[in-house]
């Protein structure tokens, strides 16, 4: 009977089945060891601490042995560090040892040392009294309780960042029990203090809670969280097991065991039942106070899984789990579920009985459900002999369905094939189907690789048709890393063997392999392997590690990755003296430029040195110029400028040299002027200096500077006119206008007067303005009407449109007049006179009301540069055609 | 932030890129648990605004935002402080200072993190270590935000230093970022089969890209390429175009007010509604977001400014007419039809009023004497008139001490159009500048010469280039353009002519001109697995001509102007073009911002009087 080994727990059933008979039965007595087994069918570590069991005090260090879940020994070693407080597995199947001084040591399952870190100074100083290794949202975390009753926690052993949890107020003795709760991406600790529970978190907050227990409680002696952290079981000093939600808001039940002593292990079987272990007796308690009792011949150890509980003993490895709903549906006695009927039908069919047809008829409409039930139930079976009939039933049922998608069936067959393979005692990973779904296939493959079962891993990848990048080639890379550890073969053979197997397979990191080779003390092999690496980001650091700095630098430059170049450059700079370093980079322009860039921001002095060494006088001079602006003493500033001047001379930059010379001269002038006039002149340009002098009515000195520095006339005129305009010295302006003939024309005078609002003065100069500038100037002084008249007299259409463009809304009358005049000119031009503008008719409106209007585009051509309208610019003119 | 629908309107759905960045950002933020405050490097707030809106950050427990400054952090009771910063050393100093101050303050326990954008840098980490604050930082993350989607066809990296670093300092870091961004684009939109480019930086980028693809080792997305061609152009292939005054609508907005991260800040006076009394008129500048989600702006932005007026008035008339429809609406269903259009109409009316105001502001500027005179001077130069002697207009500008960038722009244009200036002329200009604007500009002038913006006379290439690429077009139709030259009213941007020839008939036809331009010409083909190749539609199916339109990604290294963007969009709209363009650049520039990036900003310290 399929249900013979089902144990009822209330409404549901639990089943215990043997997974392995242990390979260690001859050598191991489990009661003498501290046992720690990794979840998801992981390896088992045994720690034999003789100092604890021996009657006499012995100083021998403990021995650690790692077995597969099937009891096959993987590795063994004698401990050689401090005193181990706790041993546990990480989610990547690394073995963690927490010492009583808070030091955590990480080993892989072959007991090769990987890394170590501490749990903080305080833990080191006051010692750890208890420790929990828990699975967090970031991987595997560790929490330690120090003798000062403070809790320190790390959320991930891969990235240990120590955080202190809040203190429990008034905790004066060690808590009777505690646990780490991991919910909502936060790790908190639940500490039992007498009858109270205190929840503490990383943000420094604490929360005291009293769970609802009907009997009197003085202490909680043990607590255990379910695999998913949602449920909590606690054991009180009165022998009561309290089961509820982990936020203590809900109580599921209380069960009185009447046991005065707490269980050796309080665990969860999945999320549905709590298991207590006292000696050889195991009690399973359901949420409705139902219970089952199991007795063992030998001591056992319990390992929680997400869907059950593994029981490891001297001879047997058993698995206790809830009978899945779907299995129950099919096999429960008297079940009329479609799955059950299909299973029966298939059995009858293979017996050659016509009853098969009858059964199929009964469930005809629900055949699809029946098939999926059988498939699912097959997944939950551990024994291949039980999987087969279920799958056969599914296959049989499938035949009666016309458009059934076989994907689920095929997938299940594949998964089961893989599962059965890894469950085989040779590999020894007793994984269930639901565990695999949670763990995912890539991780299972990783785990095979971790166990160095490369061949199996590759075969599984190929079987499941996983892309090479994630599958086979990744495994090959791991194989290669393992290969380089084999000391008995020479470099050449290994490099060749690796390249032969790996080739250019996508996703292979040759640098990882090379790194391994280097760690194994085989630099030559590493160099050989690195040649195959296409990624500079991986290649360069390793080359540096191997002290092949020059190759590293050129590879970094090739990659174009600036950061990588800097990595090498700064390393070189630190490992060489300055001269050598400069020599090393001088032939690499990119490296040189980048180093200059770094110096520009960080160390300008070094940059100057570099320019000096390279005889780059031009740049050196520029540096000096820049420096001069940062000197706050006149003498220093002039000194720097003199240095700059010398550099420019050497660089044969005559222009810069002369300018620097003049700047020195100007500075000296300015200093003198400041002293004499008590006004600020320093840091002004020459132009500004003269301008200020003119404003201050100091025309003599201004003239002197003008001569000294050879200011061109044109600019000087602009300067003087503007300055005089600004200070409103109209008398001087007039005098100036009557002097030498102005190179800028009289219009400049008009302009400046108009700019400063003195139209009266402006008119004075207007008469002297050249005819071609007249219209423009008239507009500037606001005489638009006159401007329009002048333009018309000049018969200049462009000037007219310029005036037009300057007319505002208030000049409506003027606008009309100008338009009229424009028409006149254009018509004149059309009727014979050679046109100054190329005008052509572009559109003429056919609209009856507007048929007097024609539209002309006038485009100015380069050969007749108009004054106001840039070349290529267009103006549109509306013309009334004479009827 | 408004909706981001406009990003997906183009041939390439840039929302994909935005979503990609959002995912990456949230991944970074979610690593820190609990409430967060972000401390921003100022230059990043704009770009981030285009990627993630505040409400999204809030959902991820961002409670406060501060600007990064020397003054330290304001008090707050968040659990995490996250610095979001570019990898620049001076910013590291500020961060270090902030952290040290925080240590002194004590108080509520916080965790500190840094997110580097776009990349971690060793130098910065070293700097933090030297300042002794590296240990206090919990997470040091990088967020590879580099190509920021601006519009349905436009991406910018907003790295204003790119031109200076590449051409003055030989520092190609930005080019590495460009190559990385192009890899990101290829990751999202498939491998780009054809690559062409011109210039040293372009070569650099292409080399790095091909190398990065090799480094990927075949782990690339299996997507049918959505981009057919990649065209990479160095800015120094065409240094003339950005120096000229842009005459398109958004080009002018950028030249006059400066557009940053698709928004512009304008003087508020023009935007006061009539109901507001003058007393409570806003004094703060009005910020306006400019992208194609504003329908009207989408139509106006690429028009020559001379065509904007008539277009706006036409739009105004249509809208008034549509509003008037309500009088004509008699039946209930007509009324309902009208009401359903109402929101759209109101939105149009609002945007119309905004753009009328902007156009008025621009008109004030374009009607000014200074603008027209400088435009006239530019036109003379590009036509090659009197470029070999000192120009009186430039002289007058210096005499009147007009803004230095205007003067430098003109001189640089003259230098380009004359194939460099005679030593006498050049020295004369330089001396005038130093005497007028100060000795500190000596370094700026040297920089300009180093970057090739100012040159001593060399070989006379410009006339040949001008003629063979038809840069000067006499007959321009600004209202209904028929050639890209409308964007500069008679000058066709050299860079865009190159893009035009690239699409048709191909660069082979202009090999001689290409040889006259600086830098190597690059041509590469990336192999695409057969299964991913675009299916050639058969010759007989005539209806699929739209589907056959090729997508070309044009990348401008060192910046691109709005006028050039307008010209490319114009090309994409041509019926016979057959090419759709997507534009990416290191920064959207104008002549002034380009020159500004090359200028050395030196200000003398105050002299110690003792």
UniProtKB/TrEMBL annotation, chain A:
Keywords: Endosome, Lysosome, Membrane, Protein transport, Transport. Gene3D superfamilies: Vps16, C-terminal region (1.10.150.780). The keyword Metal-binding does not apply. Residues 3-410 form the Vps16 N-terminal domain. It holds the Pfam family Vps16_C. GO terms for cellular component: CORVET complex; HOPS complex; late endosome membrane; lysosomal membrane. Belongs to the VPS16 family. Core component of at least two putative endosomal tethering complexes, the homotypic fusion and vacuole protein sorting (HOPS) complex and the class C core vacuole/endosome tethering (CORVET) complex. Their common core is composed of the class C Vps proteins VPS11, VPS16, VPS18 and VPS33A, which in HOPS further associates with VPS39 and VPS41 and in CORVET with VPS8 and TGFBRAP1. Interacts with RAB5C. Interacts with STX17, MON1B. Associates with adapter protein complex 3 (AP-3) and clathrin:AP-3 complexes. It is a peripheral membrane protein. It comes from the Eukaryota. It is found in: Late endosome membrane; Lysosome membrane. This is Vacuolar protein sorting-associated protein 16 homolog. InterPro entries: VPS16, Vps16_C, Vps16_C_sf, Vps16_N, WD40_repeat_dom_sf. Coiled coil: none annotated. One of its GO terms (biological process) is intracellular protein transport. One of its GO terms (molecular function) is actin binding. SUPFAM superfamilies: WD40 repeat-like. Plays a role in vesicle-mediated protein trafficking to lysosomal compartments including the endocytic membrane transport and autophagic pathways. Believed to act as a core component of the putative HOPS and CORVET endosomal tethering complexes.
Automatic annotation (TrEMBL), chain B:
The keyword Electron transport does not apply. It is a peripheral membrane protein. Keywords: Membrane. It is found in: Endomembrane system. SUPFAM superfamilies: Sec1/munc18-like (SM) proteins. One of its GO terms (biological process) is vesicle-mediated transport. It comes from the Eukaryota. One of its GO terms (cellular component) is endomembrane system. Belongs to the STXBP/unc-18/SEC1 family. This is Vacuolar protein sorting-associated protein 33A.
